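I would love for you to help me understand the pair of lines that follows before we discuss the fold together.
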Amino acid sequence: MRGKLENKLGPRMTFKAKVERFGRKNARGFPGFTKTILLKNIIVFSTGEEATDHAWFTVGEMSEFNYVQEGDIIQFDARVKTYWKGYYNERQLIDERKVDYRLSHPTNL
């Protein structure tokens, strides 16, 4: 799923995706929730190849996300970056993390 993003690390690229739905998650350290957006069928705009099947963003990452609706097809620029995914417990020496890939710093919606 996200392995296709591995060979696209680094440069800013243009992507195209469908807005599937909005959601919310706990706002770390703050009362209330943060609005999120789920993008599906994300493709690289220049080649038409699938980048990943889905990606979640917080709406605060890009204020233009406030103006889109479910079902809209959008185009945006982003970078592919790595992050650690999985369970980690330093006290018990449990490290079940692995490297995964995400779209980061979306702009130019």
In short: The mean pLDDT is 85.
